[in-house]
């Protein structure tokens, strides 16, 4: 089956992350503005072309001071590096509707290979007859590998911010007219 172009419906999609805070809890956040170029047969992603671009300034952890700190040079340095990107380089089918999608993730000026565990959730038609496909997935990255090294020691031992960042995605994509 040939590849089709799919547009991510950001109103029905989610790009979220979580990270340990003060060694005892997790802080969650989202990126509200992102875009993707997807050329795929959703029922067989092995030949898909996938690129994501995330607007760093759209970070939202429900706390303005924390969001401003995350945008600062201590973390993302959004003024210098306004986008985070991911470009798939290898896609392997690992089971029924399951894939490992490996690609180059760039945060700040660091590009590293990252693998997402992705599930094709299915395909349907919306009330207007348009084809819609759903995908979910996750990965964990070490933020220090991408130059996000700021931290603060805690008086009781340990550090303020963990190193591992869990990323979850929920994508609804609409097939574009050919």
Automatic annotation (TrEMBL):
Pfam families: YceI (PF04264). Gene3D superfamilies: Lipid/polyisoprenoid-binding, YceI-like. It comes from Cerasibacillus quisquiliarum. Residues 5-174 form the Lipid/polyisoprenoid-binding YceI-like domain. This is Polyisoprenoid-binding protein. InterPro entries: Lipid/polyisoprenoid-bd_YceI (IPR007372), TTHA0802/YceI-like_sf (IPR036761). It comes from the Bacteria. Belongs to the UPF0312 family.
């Amino acid at each position: 089956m040939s590849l089709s172009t799919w547009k991510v419906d950001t109103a029905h999609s989610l790009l979220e992350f979580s990270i340990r805070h003060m060694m005892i809890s997790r802080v969650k956040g989202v990126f509200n503005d992102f875009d993707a170029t997807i050329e795929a047969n959703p029922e067989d992603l092995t030949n898909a072309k996938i690129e994501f671009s995330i607007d760093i300034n759209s970070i939202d952890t429900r706390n303005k001071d924390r969001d401003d700190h995350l945008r600062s040079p201590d973390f993302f340095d959004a003024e210098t590096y306004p986008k985070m990107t991911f470009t798939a380089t290898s896609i392997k089918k690992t089971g029924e509707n399951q894939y490992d999608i490996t690609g180059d993730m760039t945060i700040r000026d660091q590009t590293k290979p990252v693998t997402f565990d992705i599930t094709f959730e299915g395909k349907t038609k919306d009330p207007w007859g348009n084809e819609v496909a759903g995908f979910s997935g996750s990965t964990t990255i070490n933020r220090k590998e991408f130059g996000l090294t700021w931290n603060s020691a805690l008086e009781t031992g340990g550090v303020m911010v963990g190193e591992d960042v869990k990323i979850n995605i929920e994508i609804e994509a609409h097939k574009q007219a050919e």
